[in-house]
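step=encode ok
step=design start
structure_in=
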């Protein structure tokens, strides 16, 4: 295996009284595409710089394959970084930019030529070898930066929001390419982003960060379907989320079935969870908008665990492949429930539900989820 295992253990980094990183631990597997995801200012760059060796933790440890790397200078760590801005040499050609790290090491000319051509091919820039950076698009410049960072054959590539300067479509294309490059080189990638859709689409695993802390580490699937905290549920994708109180809890197949009181819904609902929750505990109930059904008639309940509320459509938003509905409940709560409906059949389910229509929103107990609100 070419990649390293990266272990970050109880790392803290403060600037004066401000804790940019607060007791952060992450274990990144060999060859993994691992993302650090969180809002601006949560400490992602600080953590990346510590791994790269440009910054130093106050306490804690960083190891590559169980070897302490904190005493090593950045160029001795077998890691390399791609930054948001390209940092290319404007007066050098694509070829010379990519060759630069090897020229520094006085590598033989013939070897340089062979390696530059190999890496130029990897990032699909064969036709642009003798152009200067000013003649390249943003996406092409970033590919030069990636090739230049890889040519020294690091064992971990650190990428700090490398796509954020590009426009949306280009970003998506380059992201797919980055995934393919990762597959080909097989080393560990640590990818920093504040964009949840980017992180979900390419990562093997993601660490969700906020305010200097890691809140959850998991696969994209785990993080989306089973968010650990209120913050994670709200930051990843869109969701309905309401504070609730657990009223009862009983075993249900391999899970637990709970009745919870939700003041925002002016009612009680049923929800399942893998873990039993204590009666009386205050939590948050969440259900993703695509798991809520909307209908003009009272939904036929096949189980007693269907939660149904009557409301009025406030804002239908048709967007081709799906419609979004913001439904204001009819009870005195006035709470809005978000519903996303996929249009999966041709014309069949067109925009039959309109503004001001009276509708029913419903979801099953298993589609809902309870999360802890760590900030409360
Ligand atoms: P992110 O990359 O997630 O946007 P950073 O790691 O860059 O966040 O920064 C985390 C926090 O630490 C921010 O609030 C930032 O203002 C602060 N910070 C970063 N570097 C310094 C510094 N050199 N001096 C003081 N504060 C800093
Ligand atoms: Mg940053």
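sequence_out=
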């Amino acid at each position: 295996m070419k990649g390293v295992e990266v272990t970050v253990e109880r790392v803290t980094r403060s600037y004066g009284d401000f804790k940019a990183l607060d007791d952060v631990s992450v274990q990144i597997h060999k060859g993994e595409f691992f993302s650090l995801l969180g809002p601006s200012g949560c400490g992602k760059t600080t953590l990346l710089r510590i791994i790269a060796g440009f910054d130093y933790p106050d306490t804690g440890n960083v190891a590559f394959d169980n070897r302490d790397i904190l005493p090593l200078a950045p160029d001795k760590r077998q890691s390399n970084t791609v930054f948001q801005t390209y940092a290319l040499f404007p007066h050098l050609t694509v070829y010379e930019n990519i060759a630069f790290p090897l020229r520094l090491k006085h590598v033989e000319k013939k070897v340089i030529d062979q390696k530059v051509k190999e890496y130029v091919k990897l990032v699909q820039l064969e036709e642009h070898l003798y152009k200067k950076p000013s003649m390249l698009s943003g996406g092409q410049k970033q590919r030069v930066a990636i090739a230049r960072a890889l040519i020294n054959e690091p064992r971990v590539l650190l990428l700090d929001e490398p796509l954020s300067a590009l426009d949306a479509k280009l970003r998506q294309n380059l992201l797919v390419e980055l995934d393919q490059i990762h597959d080909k080189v097989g080393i560990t990638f640590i990818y920093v982003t504040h964009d949840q859709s980017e992180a979900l689409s390419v990562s093997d695993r993601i660490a969700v960060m906020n305010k200097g802390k890691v809140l959850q580490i998991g696969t994209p699937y785990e993080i989306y379907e089973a968010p650990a905290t209120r913050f994670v549920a709200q930051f990843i994708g869109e969701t309905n989320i309401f504070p609730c109180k657990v009223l009862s809890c009983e075993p249900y197949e391999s899970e637990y079935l709970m009745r919870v009181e939700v003041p925002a819904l002016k009612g009680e609902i049923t929800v399942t969870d893998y873990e039993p929750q204590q009666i009386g505990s205050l939590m948050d109930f969440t259900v993703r908008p695509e798991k809520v059904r909307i209908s003009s008639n009272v939904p036929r309940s096949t189980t007693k665990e269907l939660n149904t509320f009557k409301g009025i459509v406030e804002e239908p938003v048709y967007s081709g492949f799906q419609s979004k509905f913001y439904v204001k409940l009819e009870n005195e709560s006035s709470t809005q429930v978000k519903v996303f409906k996929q249009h999966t059949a041709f014309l069949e389910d067109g925009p039959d539900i309109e503004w001001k229509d009276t509708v029913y929103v419903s979801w099953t107990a298993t589609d809902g989820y309870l999360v802890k609100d760590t900030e409360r």
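step=design ok
step=annotate ok -> Helices lie at 44-52, 94-104, 109-122, 138-150, 168-185, 196-202, 220-225, 230-235.
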